[in-house]
């Protein structure tokens, strides 16, 4: 029962990490695109 109870926060953490990673990729592309446009 404890394992099932502890599984939910882990799933939430993984979801947040994936969202943050996608946001990071989006920001990285924006910075690279802006740098490329400036040169």
From TrEMBL:
It holds the Pfam family COPIIcoated_ERV. Residues 1-38 form the Endoplasmic reticulum vesicle transporter C-terminal domain. InterPro entries: Erv, Erv_C. GO terms for cellular component: COPII-coated ER to Golgi transport vesicle; endoplasmic reticulum. Belongs to the ERGIC family. This is Endoplasmic reticulum vesicle transporter C-terminal domain-containing protein. It comes from Nymphaea colorata.
